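agent: user wants the full assembly modeled, not chains individually. Plan: 1) parse entity lines 2) check alphabet per entity 3) run joint structure prediction 4) return tokens. Steps 1-2 passed, two entities, 791 residues total. Proceeding.
--- entities ---
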Amino acid sequence: MSKKQPCLDFSSGWGYEPSPENADHIQLKKKYELFIDGKFVKPTKGKYFDTINPATEQKLAEIAEADETDVNKAVKAARNSYENVWSKMPAAERGKYIFRIARMIQERAREFAVIETLDGGKPIRESRDIDIPLAANYFFYYAGWADKLAYAFPNRNPKPLGVAGQIIPWNFPLLMAAWKIAPALATGNTVVLKPAETTSLTALKLAEIIADSGLPPGVVNIVTGGGKTGAAIVNHKDINKIAFTGSTDVGKLIQHSLANTNKKLTLELGGKAANIIFDDAPLDQAVEGIVNGIFFNQGHVCCAGSRLFIQENVAETVIQKLKDRMETLIVGDPMDKNTDIGAINSKQQLETIQKYISIGKKEGADFYQSSCNLPKKGYFCKPTLFLNTSQSHRVVQEEIFGPVLTIQTFRTVEEVIEKANNIPYGLSAGVWTDKGSRIFNMTSKLRAGVVWANTYNKFDPTSPFGGYKESGFGREGGLHGLQPYLSL
Amino acid sequence: MKSAISIPDFSKSPAIDQVGVEERVARFTARSIKKASKVQGLKMALNMIDLTTLEGKDTEGKVKQMCYKAMHLHDVLPGLPNVAAVCVYPTMVRTAKQALKDSDVKVASVSTAFPSGQSTRKVKLLDTTFAVENGADEIDMVISRGEFLKGNYNFVFDEIAAIKEACGKARLKVIFETGELSTLDNVRRASDIAMYAGADFIKTSTGKISPAATMPVSLVMLEAIRDYYYKTGIMVGMKPAGGISTAKLALHYLVMVKETLGNAWLNNHWFRFGASSLANDILMQLAKEATGVYQGSEYFSKD
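--- prediction returned ---
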């Protein structure tokens, strides 16, 4: 046959000019201090570390490094305000403060979005449309619960725990702060929060809002630093509850050190979610779900749909559609409003991703990347596929936390359930089918905290989120998210 | 020799998820088109317009005026393209053809008892032949929505194929009137039927029913065109019609075409806007890009 192989051209012709978001209205200080007892204070040892823009590798600001003494001060402030102010305040009053914080985030949404993108590398489209509005929504949602806890847990006697130590990751800096702080305050606890080392800025901006909101000093304290600062929080004797979101390795260490203590613990750790496409699924929308599942936030998402399972009879079609869609993904300057995939959060994370890419190649998986150009400076990674993989490949077993998707095919429902569950993680999963009964069958058999049906990576304050197995325990969000901060 | 194309079972057209389609559309509308790419996009859109008058009160005089507009969109602004075609009733084809003389503007004629399509095969064929014999370059037919909704897909298929034959060299656009088809699954199925029956273009609406063209409906049709192209190697054109009246919305459509079908479809041989008031809004935007200020609507001719 002489027929030319049909192929679509996404690269030549009409294109989009750069359309960068304006950053002129952003004023960053040279140095950011610790937020303890309602004031910004210098770290005891006077040590600071740099926070950089991963898209340009340029320094944005210096951040104070808290040591044990600083953490101790923060915990003391939190304890003091818990005993004397916050636990005595009528619940409706507590709610008012949380509502106020939510409104102030909305008012300064643009500023927060730009800083989130500068500091973390995520595309402005995501920080503007998802991270910041969602963070405000979590505060709004939990503000509403503050004076209704008795209705949330009828015939129980919900009481706050005391001081909560909270450690959050770098993939959704402000949003994770909201997930942690909002339910803790609504339930009457006080907080010592540590943002991730590479993304402290929006948490410190939130501290400014908290100071402006008139929240009593010491109710929220924000201490910045790395692993040592985190360890000081975890091991502090006067903390009643630890909430951690981050890697499974660190989560295990935390659980280990909390053994033999009275501290309550919730962990939200890694994941390696199965995203399952059946042959009757709406395939074009499923492809969109695959893209949202793995390339959202550069794949730095613990619930990312990083293991794709396609029913064998539609695998070829789906992969063709996916490759075409990947050609239209714009990778580059996170500040550009048209960018779909921004910068990898840090050099270290880029190296991890590259390590896994070379492992996958060595394992003999079929390697595919879209044909986009990457900026010369900054940490970037092309959207990547490993095709024809199996459960025995390391790139399938281990969390990569980057824009790297592994693809396997399957034949039957039983087979895909077995393979989807055949992993130490159990945070999330996706199911794509036109058949409602199959969705319910799958959701009852998949060992995952969240199962999305015909969509992926959707978050809402009313919905609980959390994992099975090595993905952690405890739930955040929704009514369930109140429970870890209460004694019932 | 061309290999034979096997006709699929249209009752098994792919499933469409409306929520997912709307989410994808939201991504297109979030694209920011500025400066040079905006000007280029607007000129491209202008060149894709089928300038349309389809009213009971149409006269030769009205059609002549519109044809003049088609060739002289806004002469004070140099470097503008013409529109792609004018779209009229069969009785106005001869007038339009004469008025457009040697210009590159084509004449499209609606046909097959437009807009309802409620007539016999015989009348529809006559209607089409009449338009073609009067010089129509393109025929915009309507499908029999009643038969489609009854599940009579073979009837719809055969009718399109018969009209295609009557078109001769004229290119055939097949109008689904998506506002009457109710679901995106139906839109997808109608697209498959029309393309396999020989449509050169698939078109959303007559403009007489609300809702007319929407981005979700158009996306489903573009995806059907893409799938058909991959299966057969044959390109099919797309024409959203009705309800696209602003330059901004036109740019959103171009983004959607570019990211779904690629650059081969970004010209008026493969993509059209069926619209009457869109041209002036684009002209207003182009004048603003050229002069830096917006001009009032009275500075742009209305024909």
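agent: reporting back. The mean pLDDT of chain B is 96. The domain at 10-288 of chain B is CATH 3.20.20.70 (TIM Barrel).
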